[in-house]
TrEMBL record:
The UniProt record lists the keyword Metal-binding: yes
Cofactor(s) listed in the protein's UniProt record: a divalent metal cation
Gene3D superfamilies per the UniProt record, alphabetical: 3.60.21.10
Protein name: Phosphoesterase
Domain Calcineurin-like phosphoesterase: residue ranges: 6-156
Single GO MF annotation: hydrolase activity
Organism, scientific name: Candidatus Electrothrix aestuarii
Amino acid sequence: MTEIIKAGILSDTHLSRPSREYIDAVQQCFADCHVIIHAGDLTDISVLDVFSDKTVYAVHGNCCGRSAHTSLPRERTFQLGKFTIGLLHGYSLGRYADSIESGFWNVFPEADCIIYGHTHDPVCKHVAGKLIINPGAFQVNSWYSTPAPYVVLEASQELKGKICEYRPTS
């Protein structure tokens, strides 16, 4: 039987430090995930501290501070089980989803799944045999993105992604 690797994907948190609301939300949403993938615009690298017990893959975005820009790459590839994942924020490819999605094919030609952020709009679809994911803006305390979207990705014999929503209970 093939092991299932569960990855929680978020992006565009735009936090200068982890708030109590953010910590509560990620503990609720990603408790059973083995891996965390952040597609940029953390603002500050400390946003990843809450995931110290998990494997984390992250990139910086155009709204990141110095700590994130110096600590994280603009793009990266990694393996999730037998699958190659391409990860970037997307700002270097354009402002809108269509220009970002047309540009990342050249960046990650061998990827089975491409994950990006920047647009704040959640996407989980198959295009030309690849799984394309944008988790949306995981902002738990913002008028912009309530409920806060994120994606759970399962890797076993195949890749399956699902857009989920965090809604504060209080």
